[in-house]
Structures are given as C-alpha cells and as structure tokens.
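Hi V.,

You were right to ask for the full record rather than a summary. Here it is.
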Amino acid sequence: MTSSKGTLAPAPLPPPLVQRGLESDDKIAAVGSDVIGILQMVRMGSGLYWRLGGALAWILSASAAVMVSARCLGRLVETLVDPRAGVDLRWRYSLSFMVLETLAVAAQYFGRVSLAKATIEITYRIRTQLFEKMSRLPIAYFDVQPLGRTITRLTSDVEGIETFFNGTLARVLIATINIASVLVAMVLTDLRFGSTIVAVCVPALLFTVVMRRPVVYWLRTYKRRSAHLNAKLAEYLNGLPVIKIFGLEAWTQRQFTAAADELLSAGIHTLNWNSFIRPFAVFLCSLPSLLVLALGGPQVALGAMQLGMLVAFVRFSERFVAPIRVISQEVQNIQEAVVSSERVRRMLQEPEEKDSLGIDGELAPELGGKVEYRDVWMSYGDGAPVLKGITFSAEPGMKVGLVGATGSGKTTTINLLPRLYPLLRGDILLDGLPLASLERASLRRQLGYVSQDLVVFAGTLRENLTAALDRPVADSVLLAAAAETGLSKVLLHTKGGLDYQIVEGGDNLSVGERQLVAFTRMLLREPKLLILDEATANIDEFCESLIQAATVKLMRGRTCFVIAHRLSTIIQCDKILVFAKGQIIEQGTHAELMARGGYYAELAGRQLLV
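Predicted structure:
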C-alpha cells in the first residue's frame, strides 16, 4: 500500500493462522497440510501406484549409486596419494566410479520416464473425470457457480496439478531422496564427523521450511492483485463508451491507479523477500562444505583423517546444496498444486443430478405429447418459491404460448419439463405418467429446445446438424431437412455446402443463419415436445421470412411451448398462459384473453408480451 508521501510502507505479515472456515487465496497452509495435499494428489493416480513405485525405485537406485560412487572417488584419491597402492586398485576404483555414475544417470533417466508416463495418465484421468463430472452436475450448480470458475477447474487447476506431476514432483522427490541419502551416508561413513556436518545442515532445512510462509503469501497476493487489475482493465475497455459519455475518465483513472499501486506494493514485497531469502539460503547451504574443509582439512594434515574421506564428504556436501535449492524454488509450485488439487477435489465431490433430483426413473416410453402441470411449486436452492401453484394442461399437438414480465416464471416453468430442477411440491405428468418415473436420458432425447442463445460448434455444417443425433444420417436426409427449414437457401451463399466450416461460436454466420441451423437440427431430431424460448428474436431481415416459415413447419404435429416477444407468434398458439410473480394469472386463446380485457390485453395493446 502507498503512504501519503507516495512511498511504499511495509505491510505486516499475515497472522500465523487463518480462521477455519474462511477460504482465501492468501491462506498459508501448515507443512502438514502440504503433505496431506500432496498425498491427495497422489491418490488421484490410484491404479498407477505400481508405476509410481517403480519410478521411486529407480530414483532411489540412482541416489544410492551416487552415494557409493562418492565413496569410490574418495578411495581413488587415497590410492593416488598412497605409493603402496597398485595400479590395478586405482583402475578398479576408477572403473567402479564411472560405472556407478553411469548407472546413476541411467536409473535417473528410467525413473523420470516412468514418472512422466504415470503423471501424463494421471492428468488425463483427472481431465476426463472432471468433464464427466460436469455432465452429471445438476443445472442448479451452474446457476450459482460462475462459468469462469468452472472453466478454471477444467483448465488452469488441472494444469497446476499437471505441472506438479510432470516436473515438481520428480524434482522434489529426487531432492528429498538425495538429502536423506546424503545425511544417512555422512553418518554411516563417519559417525562423529558426519553427525557434526548433519547438525550444520539442519538450519538450511529449517530455513527453507519456515521462510516459505512469507514468500507464498506475497506471491499469492501479487497473483490475486494482478487478476484484480486485469479485471478492472477489461471492465473499463468494455465500458469505454459509457465512461466517455459520462465524463468518468478521472474516476476510472483513480480506481485503476489504486489497483496498480496495490499490485506494485505486492510486487516489491515479493522482490524484497526473494532478494533476502535466496542469497541467505545459498549461504546456509554452503556452510556444510565450508565446515567439511575447515574441520576435515586440519585432521587430514595431522593424519587423523584420510584424504579420501575428506573428498567423500566434500562430494556429500555438494550433493546436499543442490536439492535444498531445488526445494526452495519449488515451494510456490507445490502450494499452487495443493490449492488446485483441493479445488478439483471439491468439484468432484459436488452433489450430482441423482443426488438433487432423486433416483432416475425406469420408464422409457415413446411420448405422445400430453403434458399436465398439477399445483407445481419450485424454488432455486433454499430461496423463496419462484413458482407458486402452476396448473395447466396441454393436449398432444397443442401450441402453448407463455407471456409475462421478465422473471415472472415462464422459462423456469418450461425448464422443469426435462427435469433440470427438483420440485418443492406438486407433479408434472407426461401422457399420464409422473415425470419422476421417466428415465431422464429417454425423456431428454424426446425433447427439442431452441432459444435465442444458440449453441453452434466449431466444425463443418454437417457436424453441427448431426451433433444431437444418436444415429448416422445420409447427406440426402440432411439436405432434405435443410430444404424444409430454408437452410438450403442459405447454403447457396456458401461454397462448401454441408462441408462449410463454421468457426467457434458461429461468428461467420448471421444470427438468422444460426437460427436456421438450430431449426434444421431440431427437425432432424424429431422431438415429441418442442420448446421455443425467444427462438425468433433478433432475426436479421434476410432470414426473417425463412425462420417464420421454418417455425411453422417445426411446430407442426408437435406439442409446443413458445416464449416469444412477437405478438404474431403468440397469436398462433392454441392456449396462452399469462405469468406474473411466479403464478398463472390468465389463460386462454388470444381472442378470449383480449375479450377479457385483463393484463394480457394490456400487454398486447402495447405490443409488449415479455
């Protein structure tokens, strides 16, 4: 934060413990939590433990070979200064050293390859599990969870775990094994001298563990504030016309500067801590080597220690420094991976449709199209009811229009048909069968849905038309359906026909062309029940007449529920339901409702149906 004089005032460190139950990006977990988090990530690889165990065995073998080679190097030095040692002995130690170092490199290679293969499969499984989980989550989950958060779970959080497995895990594992091996080797080589060197190694280990706390805190603070600054920048760019019209440039500049100052403060604190910790860690890591030379050198001169022993301990101390540096550099990656794994684990534990909607039904009849709502009440989560006693019926082939103010319950009422939400009370019957008794997959296959928020996939036109079908379809059938909806007239304006490549989001199609693609897709699907939610809104002039004709053909012979702005579309309906505050306040034909002179007549008179 900046002081009144414009200089950066030092910010205090966070409290030692964060209150339980509070989730924060700045939370600093205890060392035990790190271990638990790492174990949770390893559990994600269940079934691959033998591969991970094999990789661990190779790495242990490499570490053991290095420790033994260090002792061989010491023995070689002893033979070089001992005139009594024969050439054969020198060659034996030289060859042993080279063989052991070669074996260590080979074992290290095989260990890393085995670990890489296992981690690639683990991250693949995690991605697959998350995607499958997403398809099983109830729609209510996405009502309360921001889309960006879900995408983050599927992308950056998985990438954080992938980074841990593909690089950090191997480096930390090797570093930890090497540290333990060095410490054990020093003690076994010479108990008294080795114990002294080990005692000097402890401060470097403790320093690495303790100093992770402020480093992680400021790194996370910097990341969070950077995201906040980027969000403000995007907000200002999107709202630039409004900012200019209302003269808000000075206000936005102050807001942006305040966020930039906070980011600068976090960046400077991060730099200060790193500037202090890394050189000091290097200094502490160099103490064992200095102590080996300081204590071992005079003993060698006095003949109390062999020169080969000193060389071995120098080699040991060198092997101790590098792993400490590796662990100190990987602290942030470990923390990010632990947080990512916790987020992924929470998403995988979210209640699924079967938990919120109850046991799936067992009946899978071919629907005839009769629909009946009986005193249906519904709420989102634990909130107040948004539907209150909805009761109406629709005969097969009937067209039912739904009108009312925004938020009156029209779309919510229709969204109950495919069993997207549970009911508070009441029931919905299809052909006389309770909705809960029907198999959800079978029910949804017989429903068609077209809205103004169209989903068009990147790919060919053919792939978009057949995406919702569970059967192969010949091109002749696709072209016939396109002729029915008028899409074929649009195809004449393209070069590729069914092979026309649609970009992501359908940005190379107009709104009307995307609507025609959606109508054609529904016509091929042959649904028993059809829902049109603002499906004829925002149509460009070229496609308007085509879509109006396509709408008539698509609705023919099907039970249809229509939510529309256009009075001309609603007039065609056999029954009109008028909604207000989650209730049906009027219902009847257009003529009946106009004759009644109520709320519908008022809306129709103003040409305002929603």
